[in-house]
Amino acid sequence: MHSGKTSVAPDHDAIVVGAGFGGMGAAIALQRRGLHDIAIYEREDDLGGTWHVNHYPGLAVDIASVTYSYSFEPNPHWSRLFAPGSELAAYAARIADKYDLRRRMRFGTAVESATWDDDDQLWRVTLADGASVTARFLVTATGFLSQPHTPAFPGIDSFAGRILHTADWDDHYRPDGRRIAVVGTGATAVQLIPELARTAAELTVFQRTPIWVVPKVDFRIPRAVRSLFAAVPSSQRAARTISNTILELLMVVGVLRFRQAKRLNRGAALLAKAHLRVQVRDAATRRALTPDYDFGCKRPTFSNRYFRVFNRPDVHLDTDGIERVEPDALVTTSGRRIPVDTLVLATGFNLWDVNFPAFEIIGRGGRNLGKWWRESRFQAYEGITVPGFPNLLSLNSPYAYSGLSYFTTIESQMAHMDRLLGELDRRGASTFEVTERANSEFLDAMTHNLQDSVFVDGRCASSRSYYFNQHGEATLLRPNSTSATFRAARSFPVDDYTYV
Ligand SMILES: Cc1cc2nc3c(=O)[nH]c(=O)nc-3n(C[C@H](O)[C@H](O)[C@H](O)COP(=O)(O)OP(=O)(O)OC[C@H]3O[C@@H](n4cnc5c(N)ncnc54)[C@H](O)[C@@H]3O)c2cc1C
User: Fold this and answer.
1) Protein residue whose Cα sits closest to atom 27 of ligand 1
2) Ligand 1 lined by 67 (C-beta under 6 Å)
3) Are the C-beta atoms of residues 138 and 123 closer than 8 Å to each other?
4) Is the beta carbon of 146 within 6 A of some atom in ligand 1?
5) Tens digit of each residue's pLDDT (9 = 90 or more) over 21-70
6) N or C: lower Cβ tally within 10 Å for the chain?
7) Does 3.30.420.40 match the CATH number of domain 156-216+259-293+303-345?
8) pTM of the model
9) Across the strands, what pairs with 80?
10) Residue of the CA atom closest to atom 6 of ligand 1
């Protein structure tokens, strides 16, 4: 065991990697505990994470905006119930300014690796330009959906037209009169496809796995309501509580307590099927758009416009796989040749191969986090700390994601950080590490809770859901209610950690 004597002063109190809502929330939590020497490294050229990187047409939140925002920073000015992406980017910028985070951010700075130095009790972080920086605490806030996935179709390099990934959209691109192929039918494609279909000459949608889509109750928030939210903040808090409760019912009862509440889950599936029946005329197309896995195996989405596009004569649904790409066409596995001039990759993100973690992290005794997770199950105490990794707060860990809105996750993690760093202070210590015992008990509890969920008790085999890791375990979502998550964050036994 280390003596606890630090011989070298670190460059910073803390290094935070990632300037999305996660990294900013963590920086606010650190500041509240009096840690002000924080460096936030971000590989992109601005802050906002998801909401900076993604700006494809149609982008909007799929969680009502009263809920998808920090509870301590309500925004009375959302234009719609489900705000467009640009408003989220603007909201992120306002938060950064208000909490004076911008001057702590270094853009265009990718972190390559981090190693715990047990002699000096600090993290040594290596940046892409080779520079080395040290800090007492390391917070990784690199996101779950942050490493775009590009399928390796044979011949893709020979394609002579445009290739656009939804996470790297060209705002100058005009779909008017184009022959477009969209690959993928996840939540992003559901938002984008109706926008492209409006003016494209031909649009072919390549679907591997259909998605459950329920109606979207969205509208412009009237000026009077916005004024009310601004003048009487408790009115917006009440709206948030209602929205949170609906989401919680969907998530906890419909997905996590599937075994006990199959009827609610089946009800949601029936609603989505009725929506499809009303919107799509052709029976064969409806069949192709109907998932054969249970509702909730994969994140469902909301739209009133997606299904309807398949009634158009210039929009085609293709369920054959893509065999190869030619300079001006896609060739399907059944041998059909579809001429296209634009290939849109709505193929999402790679979580389990290149994230977890997003860069190499070496802990005490040379433990490699990525290897350890893959060899001894994906796990993290309360979804935030890992044995063998002192002073590491890993926000994008297994079982970290609680509830449907990401803000539940980050705010419960902020509460956990507050309690942990407060205890560290109280003991006059400088290093924390979660015990192997506490970590194993937490993993056992999560494994046990998962048994009731749709992931274990339902039919998810064909869902190809990012909730499942490469071993087939659903280790992304935390299988308990968000109130239980918050309770745990505020009252976990402080002796679940050792302090030096
Ligand atoms: C299109 C889209 C729509 C979404 N809609 C919703 C929604 O409606 N509701 C919801 O709850 N969630 C939604 N999400 C999930 C969304 O990612 C989270 O809600 C939230 O924005 C995540 O914040 P974050 O800070 O954890 O991660 P991110 O926003 O992904 O930020 C992580 C940051 O880390 C940076 N980074 C990564 N690796 C490195 C490195 N090695 N060095 C330096 N920087 C690095 C990235 O560049 C990125 O800026 C959506 C995601 C996408 C992609």
Assistant:
1) 143
2) no
3) yes
4) yes
5) 999 999 999 999 999 999 999 999 999 999 999 999 999 999 999 999 99
6) N
7) no
8) 0.96
9) 220
10) 61
